[in-house]
Design goal:
The relative contact order is 0.15. It contains 9 helices and 8 strands. The chain has a single domain, classed as Alpha/Beta hydrolase fold, catalytic domain (Rossmann fold), CATH 3.40.50. Helices cover 34% and strands 20% of the residues. The protein is globular. The protein is α/β, with parallel strands linked by helices.
């Protein structure tokens, strides 16, 4: 990759920014391809669940998917540092934003029979959690996901961001880890995990452990490891890693 980091670049504008709730952080950016009855990808951005990271950087991948024919609903949500953010408020927001698609579909000609969830990093954790109870989805695509929160706590990732999000350690709030850590949930939907082998922010061992455990339980999980990729290459359409991400989305949404 060359040029400015993806986090520093302004993404193409969304077609519409639409509130799904009353809080200032309860909105989504909707991008629409040409034509009618478009399939839909609901995207959840990362940033270790912290308020200082917003949905803007995820606009690049959403714009790329929309160019490829997919309507994208890029969700903002309350995060750690926002009133009501953290666990479980962040997931409650994502769930509300997901349900709001039922109101958007008729007006914007969205095909909700071809619907996937996707998320990057902390957004991958939220997407996997949502997929455990979301109906009528084709599957979930988790990019460099924080999919094992107990292990993330043990590793102290991003200055113990997991503890900030869940309100304590596994010993202090075990019920939160049981409810929020995707590796501990039962997920019937198809799951595609994609992770860069050189990721130094969310180590690939989390996805490897997750895939191994979930496959043992009979869940449908495919892990794609991308050599030479780090954490942000997966969400940057300029990189060599991006075509594998786009292919996974389009394959899951194929008629």
């Amino acid at each position: 990759m060359s040029g400015e980091p993806i986090l520093d670049l302004a993404p193409p504008a969304a077609d519409e920014r639409i509130a799904y709730g009353r809080d200032a952080n309860q909105f989504g950016d909707l991008r629409l391809p040409k034509g009618r009855a478009a399939p839909v990808a609901v995207n959840i951005h990362g940033g270790f669940w912290r308020a200082r990271y917003d949905l803007a950087h995820a606009g690049h991948l959403c714009a790329a998917l929309t160019k490829a024919g997919v309507a994208t609903w890029n969700l903002e949500y309350r995060r750690v540092g926002d009133p009501g953010g953290g666990w479980p408020g962040s997931l409650q927001d994502i769930s509300a934003g997901f349900r709001f698609l039922d109101k958007l579909a008729p007006k914007y000609h969205l095909d909700l029979t071809r619907l996937v969830l996707m998320g990057h990093s902390a957004g991958g954790q939220l997407a996997l959690c949502l997929s455990s109870h979301a109906a009528n989805i084709r599957g979930v695509i988790a990019l460099a996901a924080l999919c094992d929160l107990r292990r993330a706590w043990d590793l102290g990732l991003s200055n113990n961001a997991v503890g900030e999000f869940l309100g304590g350690s596994p010993a202090e709030v075990p019920e939160h880890y049981a409810e929020a850590s995707p590796i501990e949930l039962s997920i019937t939907a198809q799951q595609r995990l994609i992770h860069g082998e050189e990721d130094r922010i969310v180590p690939i061992e989390l996805s490897r452990r997750y895939a191994e455990e979930k496959i043992k339980r009979g869940e449908h999980v495919i892990l794609t490891e991308i050599a030479g990729a780090g954490h942000f290459e997966l969400i940057d359409p300029r990189t060599a890693a991006w075509p594998k991400v786009e292919h996974a989305v389009l394959e899951m949404l194929s008629p």
